[in-house]
Amino acid sequence: xxVNIGLRCNLACHHCHVESGPKRTEALDRxxxxxxxxxxxxxxxxxxxxxxxxxxxxxxxxxxxVRGARRLGKRVIDRCNLxxxxxxxxxxxxxxxxxxxxxxxxxxPCHSLKNVELQRGRGVFDGSIRxxxxxxxxxxxxxxxxxxxxxxxxxxxxxxPPSQDALEEEYRGELGKKFGIVFNRLLTITNMPIKRFAHExxxxxxxxRYMDLLVAHFNADNVSDLMCRTMISxxxxxTLWDCDFNQALEMLPPGPRRTIxxxxxxxxxx
Length: 270
What we know:
The protein is of the alpha/beta class. Helices cover 35% and strands 12% of the residues. The protein has 9 helices and 8 strands. The chain has helices at 30-42, 62-71, 93-100, 113-120, 124-137, 164-179, 195-203, 207-216, 244-249, and strands spanning 2-4, 48-52, 75-80, 103-107, 149-153, 185-188, 233-234, 240-241. Strands 6-5-4-3-2-1-7-8 form an 8-stranded mixed beta sheet. Helix 1 runs parallel beside helix 2 (62-71). It is globular, with a radius of gyration of 18 Å. The protein starts with a strand and ends in a 21-residue tail after the last helix.
């Protein structure tokens, strides 16, 4: 179960497919958060709660949702931009995540300052590195720890990511040698040509070339492993979706619009 808890974020990244930022106010209310926990308690088949945003940690009920899901024995994933850990009022977030045993998937679009700041803004790279060092100090990424942290790479421009395995080794070498940072896995993702990234492609005259690139590299073997095939997506207004990207594009699945208050359990969604 993946829940977009709200669109408020301390960053406004160029590639953000939900166009989150500091001025966004849309958020799942407390009633919605409690309904998520109620449905999780009813449905033992959903083993993981994946919390995203925005910066999900900025939501006033983020910790309430995390604690509730952990009490139910669910794995909880926090989609973290790392820099949030140093924002005023959030400096105790890292210890909270470690105490609750939350897995972290952290954005780090490159291991170099130039590329990170090109995509995410000035000062983001240094903040991300410091955050990773803090998380390592709490046990995240260490081989003898159960605290997992995976990093996310996505291209800065109109091109596809390289080999995930090769890039992971490159990240391990560069981050380890320069900063003493360890992590569990690197995951590479391809930017979807929607919202802010689509605007950037159109602005730079790259949209058609990028679409042609995606079509030319389509691999049908990947379809069976798409996370959307085994994931339920919930929007910040409680609407149920079949895919995070369809949620961003407001492309509803066939049938009437349904929310978390229209179902008794997630098995009803097939």
